Amino acid sequence: MDKLRIEGGRRLDGEVRISGAKNSALPILAATLLAEGVMRVGNLPHLHDITTMLELLGCMGVEVAINEDMSVETDCANVKSHVAPYDLVRTMRASILVLGPLLARYGAAEVSLPGGCAIGSRPVDLHIRGMEALGAEVEVMDGYIKAYVPGGRLTGANIFFDTVTVTGTENVMMAAALADGTTTIENAAREPEVVDMANCLNAMGAKITGAGTDTMVIEGVEKLYGCSFDVLPDRIETGTYLVAAAVTGGRVKTKDTDPVIMEAVLHKLEEAGAEITTGENWIELNMHGKRPKAVNIRTAPHPAFPTDMQAQFMVLNALAEGTGTVIETVFENRFMHAQELVRMGAEIHVEGNTAIVTGKEKLNGAPVMATDLRASASLVIAALMADGVTDVNRIYHIDRGYECIEEKFQQLGANIRRVSG
Ligand SMILES: CC(=O)N[C@H]1[C@@H](OP(=O)(O)OP(=O)(O)OC[C@H]2O[C@@H](n3ccc(=O)[nH]c3=O)[C@H](O)[C@@H]2O)O[C@H](CO)[C@@H](O)[C@@H]1O
Ligand SMILES: C=C(OP(=O)(O)O)C(=O)O
After folding, report:
1. Does the C-beta of 311 come closer than 6 Å to ligand 2?
2. Computed over its alpha carbons, how large is the radius of gyration of the chain?
3. In sequence order, which ranges of 330-372 are alpha helices (DSSP H)?
4. CB of 374 closer than 6 A to ligand 2?
């Protein structure tokens, strides 16, 4: 199994291109199931999760062509299967996103339950209730969500989510786009990726308003059509490189990104003492060789501080001046990186959903194990400021969400390489 071997101690300096957002690309690829005619999706990140989603579409009969610029074209003219099998779903929770489009367009879906994962139990009850509210008959049997639409067409409804759910909002949005009548989603997720999906669906002919607010209105239309759409930049990848620059006292310019969707993270980086400058599609962070100051973090749905940046900021605090508190409110078990950071010499005390982190000037290199995607990223950042060599094991997690991570860090001056076995 591959690992990343990192020798710490180098200050990051340089420019890095940010890829398209995984969490936008996955739902938008699922939405291609709704399109009549050919649909082109561009700015796709080169990631395992994207390959898995393309494989999933392919096994349903979607014809997928990959263009030279790495955009893909999909054609659903020959879709024959409405099954998302366990073998694919178990490797990628976002497979649940085919449920809404399959029901809306084909009136039937069988999607394996994604199951729990390293960050919490992650149920899909709100997705199921959303589909039921739109008129689908759903039962959970043999590990699968088996659903069909009596009469073949979903019906608009008022849906209130008692918990803000990103992919739940996206699933209902896709289903409602082709339903009869109007759907209102209250307490909708406001994440930029939800807005990106609404923009894409509208470009396909949907009538969606209110994306980016907590109330969305979706007027169902008869048909949706293929269009050309580029997914938005990855704000979590951007934030990860900026935090890495901050902990090494360095200077990094992230290009092809979007400062407007990163307010909470940029604000915390400034609070940590970073100088941030931005342009329309770039963000530069300069620490001028200083050590960051500890910051308090509390994760919550957008526009608050994102849970997907929590692990990276825990490392920032572990190397900062002072003590910072990290509170995780979105997932019940997202501190698995804390234990590994402690093995590298970090001072972290976890109690329930709160971690109290007291900064040290340096950590120590050690073999560590990544347990989920952002945990893996946090261990790589920690290794950049550790004495000696760190091997980050189980990096298949990192390959789910970071395109060419070692090349990008090398470009910024880090001593990092992928080692087989
Ligand atoms: C592919 C994708 O976009 N993944 C992101 C998405 O995950 P995902 O969409 O899975 O996360 P949700 O927003 O749904 O989860 C938020 C909370 O709601 C709970 N919940 C969710 C659905 C449900 O049916 N029942 C329920 O109880 C979850 O357990 C969690 O505690 O948003 C998360 C929160 O920003 C991010 O960390 C993930 O990177
Ligand atoms: C938790 C994440 O992703 P997913 O929902 O795909 O597991 C993430 O991107 O940090």
Report:
1. no
2. 21
3. 336-343
4. yes
Does any ligand 2 atom lie closer than 6 A to the CB of residue 25?
Answer: no
Cα of 53 from ligand 2 centre, angstroms = 14
Q: Measured in angstroms, how far is the CA atom of residue 50 from the centroid of ligand 1?
A: 18
178 marked among binding-site residues = no
CA dist., res. 419 & res. 415, Å (int): 13
| Pocket residues: Cβ below 6 A from ligand 1 | 23, 26, 93-94, 120, 122-127, 163, 165-168, 193, 307-308, 330-331
Edge-to-edge order in the sheet of strand 39-42: 63-66, 72-75, 39-42, 228-230
CA 94 to chain CA mean position, Å: 9
Successive 10-residue mean pLDDT values, the chain, 421 residues? 94 98 98 98 96 97 94 96 94 95 98 84 95 98 96 97 98 98 98 98 98 98 98 98 98 98 98 98 98 98 98 98 98 94 98 97 94 95 97 92 96 96 73
- Helices 99-106 + 166-177 axis angle, to 10: 10
> How wide is the angle at C-alpha 125 spanned by C-alphas 194 and 162, nearest 5°?
65
For the annotated catalytic residues, the residue numbers are 117
Q: Which residues contact 36 (CB under 8 A, 6 or more apart)?
A: 76, 223, 224, 225, 226
Give the number of whichever ligand sits closest to the CA of residue 237.
2
| 201 assigned binding-site residue | no
pLDDT in tens, 288-331: 999 999 999 999 999 999 999 999 999 999 999 999 999 999 99
Q: Is 330 annotated as a binding residue?
A: yes
**For residue 324, what is the enclosing H or E element?**
strand 323-327
How far apart, in whole angstroms, are the C-alpha atoms of residue 335 and residue 355? 8
Ligand nearest to the CA of 374: 2
pLDDT tens, 82-132? 999 999 998 899 999 999 999 999 999 999 998 767 888 889 999 999 999
Determine the distance separating the centroid of ligand 2 and the alpha carbon of 25, expressed in angstroms: 12
Q: What is the pLDDT of residue 116?
A: 65
Give the total residue count for the chain. Answer: 421
- Residue 101 Cα to ligand 2 midpoint, Å, equals 21
ipTM: 0.99
